[in-house]
Amino acid sequence: MGCQLLPMLPPLLLLLLLLGTPGLQGQGQEPVEEPPEAESPSEEDGVLVLSQHNLGRALQEHRALLVEFYAPWCSHCQALAPEYSKAAALLAAESAAVTLAKVDASAEPELTEEFGVTEYPTLKFFRDGNRTHPEEYTGPREAEGIAEWLRRRVGASARRLEDEESARALIDAQDVVVIGFFQDLQDEDVATFLDLARDALDLTFGLTDSPQLFEKFGLTEDTVVLFKKFDEGRADFPVDMQLGLDLGDLSRFLVTHSMHLVTDFNSQTSPKIFAAKILNHLLLFVNETLAAHRELRAGFAEAAPPFRGKVLFVVVDVAADNGHVLQYFGLKADEAPTLRLINMETNKKHAPAAGEPITAASVTAFCEAVLHGQVQPYLLSQEVPLDWDQRPVKTLVGKNFEQVVYDEAKSVFVKFYAPWCSHCKEMAPAWEALAEKYRDREDIVIAELDATSNELEGLTVHGFPTLMYFPAGPGRKMIEYKSNRDVETFSKFLDNGGELPPEEPAAPSPEPPANATVEPKEEL
Fold first, then answer.
1. Which of 30, 38, 342, 485 could form an SS bridge with 34, CB 3.0 to 4.6 Å?
2. pLDDT for the residue 39
3. Is there a single domain that holds both residue 495 and residue 474?
4. Least confident stretch, 126-135, 161-170, 452-461
5. Chain-wide mean pLDDT for the chain?
6. What is the signed CA dihedral for 428, 429, 430, 431, rounded to 10 degrees?
7. pLDDT score at 8
8. Catalytic residue numbers?
């Protein structure tokens, strides 16, 4: 997530804004051009520096242009800057026909409005001088990933294979290779295949219409084949001759079959695990320094094949740097070996019966039971602190949440936070001051809950901090607070029964106030 510039707009309002913005009405409109005297862009660390005055000239001079809209104060932009420059250097060394550029959008309000920039950094890819319809950059934020995303847009996304030698060379060069076998390379299914190849940056793609290769690999119909140097070695995705190649189905197939049946959790594999779009993850927690724990992997792996595509099997080494995973599941290292199954959509966690041995049969039975709704999920909760109600800000955990929040005699304002969240830390003094202000009010409670260590039935927190108001009275009502995070605004909200009063008309001001936007939340 980037640094937000504006609150997210409703889809209809955003559409109206875009339709009414100069330069965004349609493909038939002439691109905006700067006057001939526009200066040539300067350069910093291999990246062009653009502005309202020279963007048009840059678009005319560079057929492929990736532009980063940034703000100097944005931490996400600062983290991206060195990777962006490295990507520019990589492409320059290859003489690739693409240029990287940047715009200080905080100093260019006209460009910010024209291109609908609502957070920093925003990256847009321009082709052939087309200013009206740039492609949104959705790729990685590290140098090689940026470079590869661009390579696949200005060059071929799949290598053309003419004979067995070229096919074998491609297959042998990588752990995972995807080859599309199509009898007619002009077929629209080929375009679908190449569209997917353009964005699947972690896979290498090939393409062929060679009858020799069809015969060599035992194919008679159009098929996408994934070759891999692990597990079963090969997986085929036949093209439906009636319906054609479905992009979504093929994407899910490739993600599912490009992963090992059993994946070790670490910093390199975690992005792919979370991007796998397999909702159920089964985790085996073991201590890899112990031989008895390592022996459990065999039974775990034996149970995996029937669940491919339905359950992702993952091994977590409690002796490695995986404390955050243990904390998320409410586990301690000495509780290994053990299993946990989580649904990534609902965040519901399931545990096997205590003392159950970990074998292929027990793992299979546990998975089947969870998938058929026969195992109740569990919720994390810390123990209730003895002094939970002694400070102005009351401490809530899973075990006392219902009792405190749904007391019909009191209105309760709760901050759901994460201990590591910088936004939560920034607003902590205001929350303490608010609690101090209302500490003598019997009918109002100011509280906080560590949402990384406590879970609640029917209430899922998606970002930090999340502020929820639970008004007094029956009905278990809940109102999310989304305005400014200062004591004055909090107080107006509380004193007005859970909603902000209408604002009084303000005198015209030449500039908007510096705090006109709501601070962003940090994602989970």
1. 38
2. 75
3. yes
4. 452-461
5. 89
6. 50
7. 36
8. 74, 77, 421, 424
Which amino acid makes up residue 255?
Answer: V
Residues 6 or more apart whose CB falls under 8 angstroms from that of 163 comprise 210, 212, 213
Q: Considering Cα of 173, then 179, then 181, then 182, what sign does the dihedral take?
A: negative
Please give the residue range of the domain that contains residue 448.
379-524
The last residue of one of the domains, among 128, 154, 180, is 154
User: What is the Cα–Cα distance from 493 to 485, expressed in whole angstroms?
Assistant: 11
> 414 pairs with which residues across the strands?
447, 468
User: Could you say which of 320, 344, 371 is where a domain stops?
Assistant: 371
DSSP 321-362: S-HHHHHHTT--GGG-SEEEEEETTT--EE-PPTT----HHH
Higher pLDDT, 151 or 503: 151
Q: Please, are residues 105 and 71 in contact by the beta-carbon 8 Å criterion?
A: yes
Could you tell me which of 162, 140, 161 has the C-alpha nearest to residue 151?
A: 140
Q: Quick one: which of 189, 174, 173, 146 has its CA closest to 47? A: 146
Domain CATH for 454: 3.40.30.10
Q: Let me know if residue 253 belongs to a domain.
A: no
Give burial (CB, 10 Å; 0-12/13-18/19+) of 166: middle
285, 321, 341, 358, 423 from 318: Cα distances, Å: 6, 7, 16, 16, 30
Q: Length of the chain, please?
A: 524
- Give residue-wise pLDDT tens across range 378-405: 988 999 999 999 999 999 999 999 999 9
266: tokens are 């670490």
How far apart, in whole angstroms, are the C-alpha atoms of residue 126 and residue 149? 13
The secondary structure element, H or E, covering residue 91 is helix 75-93
In this prediction, residue 37 carries a pLDDT of 52
Do residues 187 and 209 make contact, with C-beta atoms less than 8 angstroms apart?
A: no
Hey, what amino acid is at 505?
Answer: P
Angstrom distance (rounded) from CA 237 to CA 250? 7
Side chain identity at residue 65, one-letter code = L
